[in-house]
From TrEMBL:
Residues reported in the UniProt entry to bind Zn(2+) 2: 180, 194, 221, 225
Binding site for Zn(2+) 1: 180, 182, 185, 193
Domain Post-SET: 395-411
EC number annotated for this UniProt entry: 2.1.1.355
Record carries keyword Transmembrane: no
A GO CC annotation given for this chain: nucleus
GO molecular function, one term: zinc ion binding
The protein's name: Histone-lysine N-methyltransferase
């Protein structure tokens, strides 16, 4: 007896690009893959690998999407309809020729230059895939872009993009027990709204800009509050609002982050996200990271130095933000749905207006003026963790921020 297989689903081991190429090869039409009678004979250029020219014509070695490199073919420029890829190829070529102190494009490229251009195209493609993955993973409005015009480094290994804290073993986040009953939290706060319940003032103005001094905590409205999502006391919880770009720095500082939009002074930019671990575990990991020459440990020391955020392998875009001794971002402790003051959320706000295209930085050894703090329990040092009090036990890390106020060493 024949079985009913209408609802049967079998995972396909071929990618969409490979399926599309197969359809074109077999002249099959498929609406989902965008292959139809009008374009079945058209093939998509994945990237350009090499270049040569004769007196009459220019040729490019083409890697076809969905086909192995063994099927690459030389095509005359007149047959290609990929102006952006051609423009990018020549930008890479011109930059590489300048590096070799050559001015004119030769009739045939050297093997070394052609190999570099091939590797560059593959790296750019891998970064584009990573960029797409980041934007599929993010839960915030601001888009993420990725670019590397410096070298052949691709996406970071062993790094997972997350949108919220990942709680380590044995750590519990206690949800907020009660919320406010305000109808207008900014203009008519009931009993001081959520900040008032903790004897603090409202942190934001009507434009969502922070108006309290660094060192003072921010208490936002939470999931149990009567106010709606448009409440002016809900800022950090709305996530990153600006389009940001992860880029490779040219001065040896690794990856960095720049804003693609103008940011006003005192505006929320991003949170520092990672895995919450105990201070003892942070100390252990800190020694490991020291040997690797980097650390992403951030102490949560608002009232007690008990927990640490580790963004080394799990984090958001803040993982890539560089240090500066004269930063344009400032750290604030924020409480929303969690009442444990040992576990604040770490929010980064702009210290001044930041131009589109400018790199974002914060001070890894940020110091808060004690006169600005509201609690005598507050540890005024918002520093990266994993560093014992004795500097003799640690190798000093040289600072490369380039600021006029540079302290020469990070730690």
């Amino acid at each position: 007896m024949a079985e009913n297989l209408n609802d049967c689903r079998v995972p396909c081991k071929m990618s969409w690009d490979e399926l599309e190429a197969m359809c074109r090869l077999e002249r099959l039409h498929n609406d989902q893959l965008g292959v139809n009678r009008a374009n079945v004979n058209e093939y998509e250029v994945e990237f350009l690998c090499d270049y040569k020219k004769t007196k009459e014509e220019e040729f490019y070695l083409v890697k076809w999407r969905g086909f192995p490199e063994s099927d690459n073919t030389w095509e005359p420029k007149r047959n290609l309809r990929c102006p952006k890829l051609i423009k990018q190829f020549h930008l890479d070529l011109d930059k590489e020729l300048r590096r070799h102190k050559r001015r004119c494009i030769p009739k045939k490229l050297d093997k070394e230059i052609a190999l570099f251009l091939l590797q560059k195209a593959k790296v750019r493609q891998s970064l584009q895939r990573w960029e797409a993955h980041l934007n599929q993973t993010r839960n915030h409005p601001g888009r993420i872009f990725v670019i590397n015009d410096v070298d052949l480094e691709g996406p970071p290994k062993n790094f997972t993009y997350i949108n919220n804290y990942k709680v380590g073993q044995g750590i519990v986040l206690n949800e907020m027990a009660v919320g406010c009953e305000c109808k207008n939290c900014l203009e008519e706060p009931v009993n001081g709204c959520c900040p008032g319940a903790s004897l603090h003032r409202m942190a934001y103005n009507d434009r969502g800009q922070v108006r309290i001094r660094p060192g003072k905590p921010i208490y936002e409205c939470n999931s149990r509050c009567s106010c709606g999502p448009d409440c002016p006391n809900r800022v950090v919880q709305k996530g990153i609002q600006f389009n940001l770009c992860i880029f490779k720095t040219e001065d040896g500082r690794g990856w960095g982050v720049r804003t693609l939009q103008h940011i006003k002074k005192n505006t929320f930019v991003m949170e520092y996200i990672g895995e919450i671990i105990t201070t003892d575990e942070a100390e252990r990991r800190g020694h490991v990271y020291d040997r690797q020459g980097s650390t992403y440990l951030f102490d949560l020391d608002y009232v007690e130095d008990v927990y640490t955020v580790d963004a080394a392998h799990q984090g958001n875009i803040s993982h890539f933000v560089n240090h500066s001794c004269n930063p344009n971002l400032q750290v604030f402790n924020v409480f929303i749905d969690n009442i444990d003051e040992r576990l604040p959320r770490i929010a980064l706000f702009s210290t001044r207006a930041i131009r589109a295209g400018e790199e974002l930085t914060f001070d890894y050894k940020m110091q808060i003026d004690p006169v600005d703090t509201e609690s005598t329990k507050m540890d005024s040092s918002f520093s990266l963790a994993g560093l014992p009090s004795s500097p003799k036990k640690r190798i000093r890390v040289e600072c490369r921020c380039g600021s006029d106020l540079c302290r020469k060493y990070l730690f």
